[in-house]
Amino acid sequence: MREGMSQRAYARRCGVYVRAIQHTIETGVIVPFEDGSIEVEQADASWGALRVGHDRPGPVPRAEREARDRALRAVEKRKPEWSARLDTELDALEAYWKPQLDDLLR
Q: Which of 47, 67, 82, 95 is the 20 to 30 A CA-CA neighbour of 20?
């Protein structure tokens, strides 16, 4: 059973990469529990003082992530349709231009 928050969860909470949290642990700014988890209050107090003026935007809200994922899935579903449509257009262009190019190359 964890005593505190996981390093990944704390990184998400702070809007930074896990490596940033690991670095602060390596340098002794944050002192983790034996299981590697982090006491949030201690970490906020010690690391927060060092981060003054280094505010970064937080993690992307869940609703935005879900909307982005839905849009990407919709694009993925339509790729075969778009690919078929593109092949049809390319075939039509080739049928139109090929005789003219053959005439020019003779």
A: 67
pTM across the whole model: 0.47
Q: Which two tokens stand for residue 101?
A: 């190019």
To the nearest 10°, the Cα dihedral for 40, 22, 1, 34?
Answer: -100
Q: Is 70 helix (H, G, I), strand (E, B) or coil?
A: helix
How far apart CA 26 and CA 30 sit, in angstroms, is: 8
Give the pair of three-digit tokens for residue 6.
């996981």
Helical ranges in the chain per DSSP H: 7-14, 18-26, 40-50, 62-105
Return d(Cα 32, Cα 25) in angstroms, integer.
Answer: 7
> Is 36 in a helix, a strand, or coil?
coil
